[in-house]
Specification:
By secondary structure, this protein is mostly helical. The protein has a single domain (about 10-180), classed as Fumarate Reductase Cytochrome B subunit (Up-down Bundle). Helices cover about 70% and strands about 10% of the residues. The protein contains five helices and four strands. The chain has helices at about 10-35, 40-65, 75-105, 135-170, 175-180; strands at about 110-115, 115-120, 125, 125-130. The strands form two sheets. It has a two-stranded antiparallel ribbon. It has a two-stranded antiparallel ribbon with strand order 3-4. A hairpin with a 2-residue loop joins strand 1 (about 110-115) and strand 2 (about 115-120). The chain is elongated, with a radius of gyration of 19 Å. Bound molecules: protoporphyrin IX containing FE. Protoporphyrin IX containing FE binds near residues 45, 48, 93, 96 and 104.
């Protein structure tokens, strides 16, 4: 269990696994869509589906363990901001894999985990290079939501990193060290 001065190994591991993998997925997602790097799509989807399990585990751990107490005395405004960003991060880490699956599934492209098919692609009869959407509506909704949530998540990550660096370099408190297990 977490204590004010020391976080548990489970909290620290879940934080860094989700944080690093999600930042990598954002970078790959932004790159692959702009560079049309089709080979990266199945990797992005597979890792994205896997990260949903870790994100869910994190939510259960938060419910069981509660939020760790602040490492120092912060202003009310700072505490409120940090809480809002933490909630945005938690919701977005669940919403991104879900909207990604909705888009990929409904659009007929399909997805799975490294070759293990979860929703199969639906190829056009007579033109197997093209796919046929299972639902145009849900494909468009999934794509728009995945993109919008991704940008919200990226903004929240930047604010979260800015907060962590402010605590470490300006306030010189133990917030970042505690998350590094020190
Ligand atoms: C936490 C997990 C995930 C993150 C952080 C993430 C992030 C991103 C980002 C930043 C983009 C680029 C958005 C843009 O500028 O258009 C993107 C695109 C995409 N993602 Fe994800 N993603 C995640 C999970 C998934 C999953 C699970 C799937 C499917 C199973 C998926 C499928 C896609 C697809 C197909 C695109 C391209 C969209 C397009 O062509 O418009 N993503 N993702």
């Amino acid at each position: 269990m977490d204590k004010a001065g020391k976080l548990s190994k489970i909290t620290i591991s879940l934080h860094w696994i989700t944080g690093i993998v999600i930042m990598a997925l954002c970078a790959v997602g932004l790159y692959m869509t702009r560079a049309e790097a089709w080979a990266l799509y199945p990797v992005h989807k597979s890792v994205g589906v896997l990260v949903l399990f870790v994100a869910l585990l994190r939510v259960f751990w938060r419910i069981k363990n509660g939020w760790p107490a602040a490492a120092a005395d912060y202003t009310q405004l700072e505490q409120r901001l940090a809480k809002i960003i933490k909630w945005v991060l938690i919701i977005a880490t669940l919403a991104l894999p879900m909207t990604g699956m909705l888009f990929s599934g409904a659009s007929g492209h399909g997805f799975g985990i490294f070759g293990l098919v979860i929703v199969p692609a639906q190829h056009m009869p007579g033109n197997p290079d093209q796919v046929l959407a299972y639902s145009e509506f849900w494909a468009e909704a999934g794509e728009a939501l995945h993109q919008a949530t991704a940008y919200i998540l990226i903004a929240a990550i930047i604010l979260h990193l800015a907060g962590a660096f402010k605590h470490h370099f300006i306030d010189k408190d133990a917030t970042l060290k505690r998350m590094l297990g020190k």
